[in-house]
Amino acid sequence: MQRLAGKVAIVTGGARGMGEATVRLFVEHGARVVIGDILVEQGQALADELGEAAVFCNLDVTVQEDWDAAVAAAEALGPLNVLVNNAGILHMASILDTTPEDYLRVVKVNQLSAFMGIRTVINPMKAAGSGSIINVSSIDGLHSSAGLSAYSSTKWALRGLTRSAAIELGQYGIRVNSVHPGGIFTEMGGKGVLSEEDMNKSVYKNFPIPRVGQPEEVANVTLFLATDEASYSTGTEFVADGGWFAGMRNPGMPCS
User: Fold this and answer.
1) Which of 75, 76, 176, 180 has its CA at 20 to 30 Å from residue 202's CA atom?
2) CATH number (domain holding residue 159)
3) What is the DSSP string of the chain?
């Protein structure tokens, strides 16, 4: 069953990782997709592989003109129905070692860009008669860790932006939700530094689901939110974290 038949989507950061998995799944389910990214070679190669169902757009999510071009590319495929604000960067450093420039760089890519994307798609989605906006936050938008002051701040901010936008836009048939991945086996999540097996043994062994997540497992949550199956869901958080937010299994406790 093609759950997105006839829909048109923009996926930012769509050239690799969770974005790529989302693009592939959307196309599999009948959507036509604009792959927005600054990774030109990877993004264009993905679009070429997927054929007429996908086009690549060189999208710097901090530049309004690039957003306008991405929306134009989407509307050339049909009425714009879905936006996935997936693009993001990670900065790991103590607060003392994080400069104001470091902090603002993360804010621009992770937070300001989502605001810009939402603002840019409102009128096209109103014209289409409905829409679904999915902001990819993080488990670090529900709790945090040392060394993630900039990253976690932006991922928490996406929750507030999501709720405010949901309140404003629901009257137009536009739903806005956030997705909160935990540890996922992507470049940002340590792929290329540790093997999947080593990650499972060293990092994830005490998680409720004791393994690293896969990009497709997050993409499946995003797919649901993009479909009409989620027609009464807006302004809320959907978590795909292997139980991280619930808590860890303590080896010294019963049933662990």
Assistant:
1) 180
2) 3.40.50.720
3) --TTTT-EEEEETTTSHHHHHHHHHHHHTT-EEEEEES-HHHHHHHHHHHGGGEEEEE--TT-HHHHHHHHHHHHTTSSEEEEEE-------B-TTT--HHHHHHHHIIIIIHHHHHHHHHHHHHHHHT-EEEEEE--GGGTS--TTBHHHHHHHHHHHHHHHHHHHHHGGGTEEEEEEEE-SBSSTTTTBTTB-HHHHHHHTSTTSSS-S-B-HHHHHHHHHHHHSGGGTT--S-EEEESTTTTT-PPPTTSTT-
Task: Tell me the catalytic residues.
Answer: 151
Residue 256 has pLDDT above 70, yes or no: no
Residue percentage of the chain with pLDDT more than 70: 100
- Model confidence at 194, pLDDT cuts 50, 70, 90, reads confident
Section 221-225 average pLDDT: 98
Is residue 83 a part of any domain in this protein?
yes
Specify if 16 maps to a domain. Answer: yes
The parent domain of residue 37 ranges over 8-182+215-240
